[in-house]
Amino acid sequence: MKTSKVDVAIIGAGTAGMVAYAQVRKHTDRIALIEGGPFGTTCARVGCMPSKLLIAPAEARHRLQLLPEFGISTDAGKVDGAAVMRRVREERDRFVSFAVDAVASFDQAHVVRAYARFEDAHRLHLDPPDPDQAGAPAVDCIEAARIVIATGSRPSIPEVFKSAGDRLISSDDVFYWQDLPQSVAVFGAGAIGVELGQALHRLGVRVRLFGQDGAIAGVTDPEIRAYAARTLAAEMPVSLNADKVRVSRDADVVVVDFIDDEGVSRSERFDWLLAATGRTSNVDRLGLENASVERNQRGVPLFDPMTMQTSQKHIFIAGDSAADRPILHEAADEGHLAGRNAGRYPEVLGEPRRTPLGIVFCDPQVAFVGERHARLIEDGIDFATGQVSFEEQGRSRVMAVNQGLLRVYAEKGSGLLLGAEMFGPSAEHLAHLLAWVVQLRKTVGEVLELPFYHPVIEEGLRTALRMLNKELGMAPKPLPSCMECGPGA
Questions:
Q1: What is the pTM of this model?
Q2: N or C terminus: fewer CB in 10 A for the chain?
Q3: How far apart are CA 170 and CA 275, in angstroms?
Q4: How large is the average pLDDT for residues 155-173?
């Protein structure tokens, strides 16, 4: 058996793996970056970017429906599904090429085209890569002093859907379509399902979005969850409490029998069943039992989020494989931490994590900042809430995007801003502003000292903060406002 010895082996060349590699190189040149599949990150190939490429034309077409409100008539809006998907694929491939080029810029002596699995805590057995990738690796085994696990994730497909046969697709598969279908049953009302379901609906595809237990887009605040569910259900068929779901095939058609949210038995037929039911960490393919790494009930290694160090102190984990914060900027941060510490080991440095920030690109958008409502309740935090509805907010009404609700949370006593959940216009921008001030540990009063222009959607945030300050019992400083513009101005 041919064995290669290195200081650090990195398993996976996605976002976390590439960032880890850049950090490790600062400390050693004895590196193995192991990847058996195609290069190109989850974000670029099947995640963030292609989904936004599908959402963009959907939102553009939807905006056309609002033109009569502004006194403008139009006959535009006919969808060329093949053209839509061609642009999605072409632009997706462009984004993927950046990641491929990044790996090509690495020292190719460090790149190992293979799949790895643990033989023990330091030895990795190498299996051949995918058939359409490079040939077999030059060695059979890599012995590493330190190891970074950055193997990413894959779509999770529940067994109940597999009766759909070749009409079952995952969220990864959508972005390889040559044309838009006529109809799709979308199962999973999390971020991926809501984004893709609404986008397909707005592009003229007949869609029904299925969920469980009333959950929608990861929202934990019950008032915002109810508002978001009502709003999305008013636009397209939604069943967030579907019961007794049964999937079958009738020739090339997927048949879904279920009891809807009103208790009515229904049977609907679709071209495709799209499983958007979450993702599974690829660590289950690594033979972690051979490395004696402590794992949770899902089989994912337990780790210190400040260092990304597992129970085997020389083994680190980062990115989607950690199944903790499956978002690109978090994967990059984790790759940085894991790579830096693997390179410096045994000297390991902890680093505080950034304020949690999540965005769902439905319309209106969903966003979360800092501490979530459910976590505050679970932890028994004594907190106050302020909110604003965007229905009467001045700038939102001007642009005819006046739907949504934002709720902000602060610690009673100190007035420290803790977090927020929202469903509304420009949530991606409001969430960034809030994430910055939460990370800076600002009080509600201190945030209200900051400038707010008029007329902008951000004034709605100021309205919520003013209400929150009042709930905290803080004396508000008089601020100018445009009373004729209505609530939230």
A1: 0.94
A2: N
A3: 5
A4: 94
